[in-house]
Design a protein that fits this description.
The protein is mostly beta strands. It contains eight helices and 122 strands. Strand 36 and strand 37 form a beta hairpin.
Length: 1821
């Protein structure tokens, strides 16, 4: 040891030298510390700096932390204990970067790679810092104890030393530095040395003075409760979901308290209801008078009520100019464009509307081009029960053009596809827990009848299986994560576990914990890891030995491991105009992944496992998913030091780097319910957790303690030969106090004095963190209630008190016994705290309870106040303080009393321009000046109120009430209110469903409306659905006052309006055009005199009270009557006189005029308003029904003609102007289709009501009706003549019931109706029924204005020409329109059409006719059986050998076997088939060998050669197994055998006999005379007549004249093959190889009508040396080169001569037509199937021309063309199109409307667009 130690600065200059004084020491602890300390005192301090170092025989040590001495007051000196760390320990002051050589270095990053790769990054950091060891670069060394596999490490702002430790912990090894070498492995070597502590009884070989144990506890856990992560764990995990049978209907069961939906099941789904509506239509040009367009598309004529799934990409509405710019013709007019989309349907005649969306686009001035709008369609639709005529309606309103130039320049286009699905089912299985089926599991179907709404909640069991009320059952494959929490049972155990255990992955069911060891049945201890540990006979440790611990393994959870299949990105610009990228990726292995998969309340996340982003965690959003995979958007974040992903660190697919293939990035997905992907994921994760728990327990058995051994000085001194021990040296610790039998370990540290090294050095013996559970990184729970006990988690042992750390993504609730991690603390601070060191923003209100001390001013927006000046006042409205006090007035700078600004005085007076309060204004007295203005509606209604608050989640409203105030609301009240949000005024409608107390109630929103009630809202109860007393109200607007009655629905109808005063124009909505009138009154009763102001505005004129025709009686002043043709007015207060010229009480008002000559017909006047329809007369009595006639013969073709009628207010209507209600014009047509057409052009239109003529003089008042009542005809239907049909008789049936009275509402009493059958067999014409009595005459209206009327007449006839005619419906119908009410009498005046089919000859099967008399439908039922006595599987639905059938009128199949007529499916035996080819020679079989009567002590065989048979007890027996018999017969070795059959023969064949034919003799097979047959001799078979021989060599030998026949015809004759089989002119072979010869002509044929038809040919002319091709030559396809690239096949020739035109005759062409803005691809040479965005050449010829049409401004990509091909591209539309010309810089060429351009194709680019091989283009100038 040197006497002086020189401490040098970084330049090598000695800063200070010191002797080695007492107390100086050398200290080392593996992976933790490596330093020396020097003790000295100085009278004057020396200031050491970082980097000062010592370099001597001890090594290199540097000052890495600033050090200040301690002043010694006793000596007056400065005492130093200077610590110098080993040269590499300065690395702790440097961060570990991924790219240390760049400026944008990542301090937080992840890497999945082998250890050597991580270390190479580490060396890059050292190299960038310039660190070396004595001019040597650092290297690394990994020993054989380390498995150098690829692992993920996350480096989060760590220094270099910590990075090494992270690596060692990850690979479970140690690191240490040996000069310039960084070593990884297990630091251990040499043979063990004894370190012994003695006692009085054992003092031999003692070399340790003392041994101190350095652990923090005396025991370690022996029983582990392990839990995994909360990721991908549904809240329903390990909860019991038990259902109760509360309804039973046959085999259908239901738990009505736990209704299910189809998305609760992962199985297949079938949709019963599937409705589609689509549109791609235009409005036609708008005009000043045509500014509204309504487009209706039918979804379904009948639709069941309930919830439907809707699939649509939205409704696109474009409003664009129709022609190019010519003056002002290319502009849209300024104004509001109103766009609206809705679902429309009817319920019991009432129209319902569900709004899809609406938009208003306002143009301040005329605008060019177009308005492009898209209305998003919700994915659900809810409609009422018994709905019909479900449609999609699009409404467009445009401003009227201001100029005639604009009359035809713009129109609207609507494009959409909407699919509506309803009624879905799912397969499942049910296990019963109680009842007769307890313990049994059955296949079942959810919602088997494909119903919707509540009716869908049915589980159908197999046929023959039922259950009883109260039975309990579970559904086995239900997705619990989608089931409401309140469905689960809540027993005591679950309540105990709730919130801790159930949120985390648990060990497999039945395994609560893992023990460190067990005991064998004989008492030996078996540690975990031993192969006998899992022996089922083992015994668990006693409870006294169980030291319990709870661990959390956060990386254990059900995982989906995905691979990135493709990557795309979008470049965007943030608010600071800075560009950034959003990355999308697709995983083709994850299919049909929807938002339903996501766990409620959680966000989808991914953790990259490989690639540049390995280990990083990102939130992701679903972009789209289908059967081809799922596309996600990666939400970038700043968790890793900057926004990622970016253009440096981003996701990648498989690619090449440095010539090597790099696989695609992989990732783990979490935040979803695993049941949607696989129900096995959770059990697999539980098994993995069990495996990890066992590994943890095994490691935990390693003693984590370290032992500090103070060595005996003499032992170390060793008589001058000082003993030293290096780190890693093995040691046997001997200490009876600690180890009964000693413990082997190793040295991991030391400390010895520098001045006297052998003076009691201390060696630390034990394990480092990486080799014991003390170094486990897993988090521990602070406490857990489990099985009724509370356990505390600990990182070091059972019963400890370590604190649980809540990480960033941990959802554990904070408590007094856990803490946030540092990253989580930062996250919480950023989320909830305001920074004190940098600018920050608070979303909520900040209150300063003790004021604000401002030194550098206050900043609000752009105003800064730096002193107490006027600016302070400007910002006061931005500040909030609690109990702020001001001594004087507060005012704005510009305040002028009662003129400008504002002022608040200390007395509380406010002078301001206006005051807006968002909640309430409460004052003792409210005074205002002169005028009260209300914007909106003012109601006087039975109820209403002010809302204090709203709980939207539970649909509860809390009212603002004064003390003692009673809420004016009732159940079923119909409520509405208006409010203003950021999109304008909105209306909310809601119904009160339940009163919770006086101040709160529950509500439900009106269907189709999404806005909830709002805080501080004033609402009105303007009606009630059930309480007639609350159905009256009134309200006023700025235009009118309206009084209502009978309000029992959301919409106000005409019948509900009792009176309206003011502007009546809006009554058009109810069919009453009262524009210009100011009062509408429904039924008026008045007394007194009515006076009218004349047009001079002054004169009052009494209005007579018209009493009709005079009758004897009393009349009053100004009563008006008619009498003797004149009109009279009473001028006395009362009178009983009869009006006459001599009466004094009557004034003749109008005298009866003489009849004048008829004048000429005047010109047709403008159409007058439609008069009110008179009251209907009473129903006449129904005539008696005719008797059923003889059924008529079949019609000619079975078709039925239908007569169709529509009405319209105009003569040439559009589809939307046609109605079912009679109007001015009527349209008719006849065809064979039952449904009415919506095409107006199909109808013939004629006037149904006459035009209004010129105004005539006042007509004579009509006579009063007798009682003025209105009669009503009531109709109901029945199927049996005894009860109503569905919907209370509104559904049409086979019987019709009618009655007439004066009550509007239909009776529900069946007997009130007179019933008759609607449809029987066709009978003869019955006699004319008696005419009903005349209905009572209603009051006569005033004389109408004369006009010209058109009349529509109908007649019938049995003949097609209408002769003769009748009024009774017959085979033909004739129609005529005249100006006379009298019907024409000539049949030639009518247009005739078939009304009933004429009798013709019986034709082929026609369309099925109408059902017979009883209307029943027959059903064919089929089942299957395998044995003819019982059904096959699936209750006979699985096909079998037997088929059973029967026919009845019941739709459901019977389950009674005998009801079916059974027949075997297998048919009669068919003809014998052709002989098959000879098979290969089989292996020799065992031979049956009779052995006679059974004998004892005999060997019998059953092997590959022989199977012995014997006779025993008179029966044949077959040997089952080779054996030697004993003295008694062993029946277990024999089985009965009775297959021998005696056959008489002259040949005796012995076992293994060989027939040896001697001489010329042999075996003859033939006729008895032996004149014709076969001789078998010498192994050959030869025919004795034809000499045909099968030789012993296996050949067939024929004589020269011999032959072979095939199929009865000669195949070979005289050694030649007959030409019938091989024709020299027609040679057909499957494969002709190596053929040569001479050919004249090769012909290609096809078989047509069983004949060969020549299609093409190749001719050969030897004389001309030419080939003639008769047909087209086609040469196409692609060829793959050796380098993998593809090219087209080539046609190679040295010389090509063409007589005619060379090339293709016409220009090949592709056409694109779209309104989209997407990318489209034209493939010039390649084949392919056309899609929406890809087009290919149909002929296979290369494309020469491309035309671009449609309104869309899309981009065209030219693909798959060689270079230098000329291509013409045309824009055939009035809209610009874009063409991609250079992909590297995304250059696009814009092709203007109606222009073309010629391009030359350049190189193919595959980098930017893949897999489309796209060309760059050059523009031909």
């Amino acid at each position: 040891m040197a006497e002086l130690v020189d401490i040098k600065d970084i330049s090598g200059n000695i800063r200070f030298s010191t002797t080695i004084n007492e107390g100086s020491k050398r200290h080392f602890l593996l992976m933790q510390e490596d330093y020396i300390t020097l003790l000295f005192s100085l009278s004057n301090p020396v200031y050491f700096k970082l980097g000062d170092y010592v370099d001597n025989e001890l090594g290199i040590f540097e000052l890495v932390d600033l050090y200040k001495p301690t002043y010694n007051t006793t000596t007056g000196a400065y005492d130093y204990e200077l610590r110098l760390d080993a040269y590499y320990w300065k690395w702790k002051n440097k961060k570990f970067f991924y790219t240390p050589e760049t400026t944008g270095r990542e301090a937080a990053w992840n890497l999945t790679a082998t250890l050597d790769t991580h270390l190479n990054v580490f060396l890059d950091n050292l190299k960038a810092l310039g660190y070396k060891f004595r001019d040597l670069d650092f290297t690394w060394d990994i020993d054989s104890t380390v498995e150098n596999t690829s692992k993920l490490v996350s480096y989060d702002n760590v220094n270099l030393i910590d990075a090494l430790t992270q690596m060692a912990e990850t690979w479970e090894c140690e690191w240490w530095i040996d000069n310039h070498k960084i070593c990884f492995g297990r630091c251990e070597y040499s043979s063990p040395v004894d370190f012994k502590v003695g006692d009085l009884s054992d003092s031999e070989n003692v070399n340790v003075n003392s041994m101190q144990r350095s652990d923090s506890q005396a025991t370690y856990a022996t029983r582990i409760y392990a839990f995994g992560s909360t990721r991908n764990i549904p809240s329903s995990y390990r909860k019991d979901l038990i259902f109760d049978v509360k309804e039973v209907n046959g085999r259908n069961i239901s738990d009505t308290s736990r209704p299910l939906k189809v998305n609760n099941f992962p199985s297949r789904v079938t949709y019963k209801e599937d409705y589609t509506a689509s549109s791609n239509e235009g409005s036609g040009p708008f005009t000043p008078s045509y500014t509204e367009w309504t487009l209706d598309k039918t979804l379904a004529s009948l639709a069941k009520g309930g919830s439907y799934k809707v699939v649509s990409e939205g409704i696109s509405i474009n409003i664009s100019t129709a022609v190019p710019q010519i003056g002002n013709r290319a502009f849209l007019p300024a104004g509001d464009y109103i766009l609206k989309a809705s679902y429309i349907y009817n319920v019991s005649g009432e129209s319902k509307e569900v709004i899809i969306g609406n938009q208003t686009v306002s143009l301040a001035q005329n605008q060019q081009y177009e308005i492009v709008s898209k209305i998003q369609v919700s994915d659900t639709l809810v409609i009422d029960k018994n709905s019909s005529d479900l449609k999609v309606r699009v409404y467009v309103h445009v401003p009227a053009p201001a100029s005639s130039e604009l009359l035809s320049t713009f129109q609207a286009y609507v494009t959409y596809d909407i699919n509506v699905y309803g009624g879905s089912s799912a397969t499942t299985s049910v296990t019963f827990l109680t009842g007769a089926n307890a313990g049994q599991t059955f296949a079942a179907v959810y919602n088997p009848d494909l119903l919707t709404g509540d009716a869908a909640n049915i589980i159908q069991l197999p046929e023959g299986v039922t259950a009883s009320l109260g039975n309990r059952y579970t559904i086995d494959n239900i997705i619990k994560g989608k089931v409401p929490d309140n469905y689960f049972s809540k027993d005591d155990k679950e309540m105990t576990l709730n919130g801790v255990v159930q949120k985390r992955l648990m060990l497999p069911e039945g395994i609560s914990y893992v023990d460190a060891y067990k005991y064998s049945p004989t008492g030996e201890r078996i540690n975990i890891g031993d192969e006998n540990y899992d022996n089922p006979d083992n015994v668990e440790m006693p409870e006294e030995e169980a030291i319990e611990e709870i661990i959390i393994l956060e990386d254990e959870y059900p995982q989906y491991n995905g691979t990135i299949s493709s990557v795309s990105h979008d470049d965007k610009v943030d608010d600071n105009d800075k560009e950034y990228r959003i990355y999308n990726f697709k995983d083709t292995g994850l299919k049909n992944f929807t938002e339903d998969f996501r766990l409620d309340g959680e966000e989808l996340h991914m953790i990259f496992q490989t690639g540049k982003l390995a280990g990083m965690d990102f939130a992701i959003n679903i972009v789209e998913s289908d059967s081809t995979g799922t596309t996600f958007e990666i939400v970038r974040n700043e968790d890793y030091g900057r926004f990622l992903p970016d253009d440096v660190l981003y996701p990648q697919t498989a690619h090449m780097e440095d010539g090597e293939e790099v696989p695609a990035d992989t990732y783990i997905l979490y935040g979803f319910d695993t049941a949607y992907i696989s129900e096995q994921m959770l059990p697999d994760a539980e098994q993995n957790l069990l495996k990890k728990a066992k590994e943890y327990v095994k490691k935990s058995m390693i003693d984590p303690s370290t032992y500090d051994c103070e060595m005996d000085a003499d032992f170390i001194y060793n008589k001058g030969n000082i003993r030293t021990y290096e780190v890693g040296a093995k040691v046997n610790l001997i200490n009876k106090a600690f180890f009964p039998e000693g413990r082997q370990s190793r040295i991991i540290g030391f400390e010895w004095p520098l001045d006297i090294p052998y003076d009691h050095p201390v060696y630390t013996v034990g394990e480092t963190a990486s080799y014991s559970r003390i170094g486990e990184i897993e988090s521990k729970l602070d406490s857990l209630t489990y099985k009724g006990q509370t356990y505390s988690g600990s990182a070091v042992g059972g019963g400890g008190t370590s604190v649980y750390v809540i990480g960033v993504n941990d959802k554990t609730i904070p408590s007094d016994r856990n803490v946030f991690s540092a990253k989580r603390v930062l996250q919480e601070i950023i989320a909830y705290a305001i920074s004190k060191t940098k600018d920050d923003t608070a979303l909520g209100l900040i209150s300063f309870l003790n004021g604000i001390n401002v030194t550098n001013g206050i900043v609000t927006d752009t105003i800064t106040a730096t002193e107490l000046s006027s600016n302070i006042v400007k910002v006061l409205d931005k500040l909030t303080a609690n109990n702020a006090a001001f001594s004087g007035n507060i005012s704005s700078v510009d305040y002028a009393e009662k003129l400008l600004g504002w002022l608040i005085t200390p007395a509380g007076d406010i002078d301001a321009k206006s005051l807006r309060l968002r909640d309430f204004l409460e004052v003792p007295e409210l005074r205002y000046n002169r005028v009260s203005v209300i914007t909106g509606e003012e109601w006087n209604a039975p109820g209403g109120g002010i809302i204090e608050s709203v709980d939207e989640e539970n649909s509860i409203v809390y009212l603002k009430l004064e003390p003692g105030e009673i809420a004016a609301v009732e159940v079923d009240d119909i409520c509405k209110a208006n409010f203003n949000n950021d999109t304008g005024f909105q209306t909310t409608y809601f119904r009160i469903t339940e009163k919770l107390d006086n101040g709160s109630f529950k509500y439900v929103l009106r269907s189709g409306y999404t806005y909830h009630p709002q805080k501080a809202m004033h609402f009105v109860c303007y009606g009630n659905f059930t309480n007639a007393e609350r159905q009256k109200s009134s309200y006023s607007t700025q235009n009118y006052i309206r009084f209502l009655k009978g309000v029992n629905n959301w919409e106000i109808t005409k019948d509900m309006i009792a009176m309206q005063l003011g502007d009546l124009s809006n009554l058009k909505l109810f069919g009453m055009d009262m524009t210009g009138h100011s009062a509408y009154l429904n039924r008026i009763y008045m007394t007194g005199t009515i006076k009218q102001i004349s047009n001079d505005g002054v004169t009052e004129v009494p209005v007579p009270a018209f009493k009709g025709e005079w009758k004897a009686g009393t009349y009053w002043y100004y009563d008006e009557v008619t009498h003797n043709g004149s009109t009279w007015i009473c001028i006395e207060s009362t009178t009983t006189q009869e009006p006459s010229d001599s009466s004094t009480d009557w004034l003749k008002y109008t005298s009866k005029g003489e009849q004048g000559a008829q004048g000429p017909v005047g010109p047709e006047g403008p159409q007058g308003p439609q008069g009110e329809r008179g009251p209907q007369g009473l129903q006449g009595l129904q005539g008696p029904a005719g008797q059923d006639g003889i059924p008529g013969k079949d019609g000619e073709n079975g078709l039925t003609s239908y007569f169709h009628i529509k009405y319209s207010p105009v003569q040439n209507p559009t589809a939307s102007q046609m109605t079912e209600t009679p109007d001015v014009f009527i349209g008719t047509y006849v065809d064979f289709t039952k449904e009415d057409s919506n095409d107006p052009s199909k109808y013939t239109w004629a006037r149904f009501e006459g035009l209004q003529g010129a105004t005539g003089e006042q007509g004579i008042p009509g006579i009063n009706g007798e009682d003025g009542k209105t009669s009503y005809l009531h109709i109901k239907y029945s199927n049996d003549g005894q009860t109503f049909t569905d919907n209370n008789g509104e559904t049409p049936g086979e019987w019709i019931g009618q009655y007439t009275d004066f009550e509007k509402n239909d009776s529900n009493v069946f007997s009130d109706y007179k019933w008759s059958k609607i449809k029987g067999e066709q009978g003869e014409q019955g006699p004319q029924g008696a005419t009903g009595p005349q209905g009572e005459t209603g009051p006569t209206g005033s004389q109408g204005i004369p006009g010209t009327s058109s009349y529509f007449h109908v007649k019938y006839s049995a003949n097609s020409n209408g002769d003769p005619m009748t009024d009774t419906p017959n085979t033909y119908i004739g129609t005529a329109v005249t100006a006379s009410p009298t019907a024409p009498t000539s049949y030639t005046s009518y247009t005739w059409a078939r009304f009933e089919g004429a009798q013709g000859e019986r034709g082929e099967q026609g369309i099925p006719g109408i059902d017979g008399e009883n209307g029943q439908t027959s059903y064919l039922h089929i089942k299957y059986s395998d044995d003819g006595s019982s059904f096959t599987a699936n209750n006979g639905e699985t096909p079998g050998a037997w088929i059973g059938q029967y026919v009845d009128f019941t739709e459901a199949d019977s389950t009674v076997f005998s009801k079916y007529k059974w027949s075997k499916i297998k048919g009669d035996k068919g003809d014998k088939g052709d002989k098959g080819d000879k098979g290969d020679t089989g292996l020799p079989g065992a031979m049956l060998r009779p052995r006679g009567v059974w004998k004892a002590n005999t060997e019998y065989y059953n092997n590959e050669t022989f199977i012995d048979t014997v006779i025993y007890d008179g029966q044949n027996k077959l040997c089952k197994i080779t054996h030697t018999s004993t003295s008694s017969f062993d029946s277990t070795k024999w089985e009965e055998f009775s297959e021998f059959e005696n056959i008489a023969t002259n040949v005796l064949l012995a076992q293994n006999a060989t027939i040896d034919v001697l001489g010329t003799s042999g075996i003859f097979v033939g006729n008895l005379e032996k004149t014709e047959g076969w001789m078998i001799t010498g192994g050959a078979i030869k025919h004795n007549v034809t000499t045909v021989e099968l030789t012993k060599g296996g050949q067939i030998a024929l004589p020269e004249t011999g032959g072979i026949t095939v199929g009865g015809e000669t195949f070979i004759e005289a050694g030649k093959i007959k030409t019938k089989f091989i024709d020299v002119e027609t040679l057909e072979v499957t494969h002709l190889k190596g053929a040569t010869g001479s050919f004249k002509r090769l012909v290609g044929v096809e078989i047509e009508n069983e004949k060969e038809v020549e299609k093409c040919a190749i001719g050969f002319s030897a004389s001309e040396g030419k080939m003639y091709f008769e047909g087209d030559i086609q040469h196409q396809g692609t060829y793959k080169e050796e380098d993998g690239t593809e090219r087209s096949y080539r046609f190679l020739t040295s010389d090509l001569w063409c007589r005619g035109e060379f090339g293709h005759r016409t220009m090949t062409h592709l056409s694109f037509e779209s309104s989209s803005t997407s990318d489209f691809f034209a493939h010039i040479y390649n084949y392919g199937t056309d899609t929406t965005y890809h087009k290919y050449a149909e002929s296979g010829q290369p494309i020469d021309c491309i035309s671009l049409g449609g309104t869309g401004n899309y981009v065209l990509y030219v693909c798959d063309s060689p270079q230098r091909k000329m291509l013409t591209i045309m824009n055939t539309s009035g809209y610009p199109k874009r063409i991609m010309v250079t992909f590297q810089d995304s250059a696009v060429f814009t092709l203007e409307p109606y222009r073309f351009k010629i391009f030359i194709t350049a190189e193919i680019n595959t980098d930017k667009i893949n897999p489309n091989r796209a060309n760059n283009l050059r523009i031909m100038q």
